[in-house]
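Researcher: I'm preparing a figure for a lab meeting and need a structural model of a single chain. I don't have an experimental structure, so a prediction will have to do for now. The sequence is pasted below. Please return the structure as tokens so I can convert it later.
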Amino acid sequence: MPLISYFLLFITIVISGASVFAFKQINQKQLKLLLSFSGSYLFALTVLHLIPEVYKGSDHTIGIFIFAGFFLQIILEFFSEGIEHGHIHIHKHQNAAFPYGVMIGLCLHSFMEGMPLVQNFDESSTQNSLLAGIIFHHIPVAIALMSMLLQSGVTKKSAIFFLVLFALMAPTGALTSTLLGSGDWQNLPLFYNRMMAMVIGIFLHISTTILFESYGEHRFNFLKLMIILLGGGLAFLS
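Model: Understood. Here is the structure written out token by token.
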């Protein structure tokens, strides 16, 4: 994977999270629109590109790994409190477990997302589409994370530390896969394919949760519909 891809994975999170310092309060409507776009892009990317990719091989257990990834994300959200799809829980009275539980869930989530980025896809454009999907997904998550940390009374220095830690996770996941690939692993393509299947399960959980919550109020919202169609259309064209 090109060095620019590692840099983009890192810097987009840092810039997005740091943007919170420029505003006194995060606009929840704008954040939900960002989430709607990222959720739509992830869902379309998964259905149109990633699922066909992992089913091209002869591995009949792929469905099990997709299923496992879906439920792994449910478990991770017990720690991260659903910040992956924009939930901001303010802890006015902090305890020793906060924000470490949130960071453990969020960092494991991001690390796993980065791992399949280095594999050789049948369609060369799929890697760039996956990279874009992870970046689009991480931008609102970084904003939500920093907003939650600062509103919960965490110091600015600690908040920046946690933001940088989160920003390092996806590149670290990709680098870990690169190091694994440099060894003499006979079943490496099978490992990559199964890891991609787990990430598909994670993406399906996150994207559908975002999209269901986007219309949880059961009211027609033209702007939100256009944003969702834009995200899905971009994934279709990529």
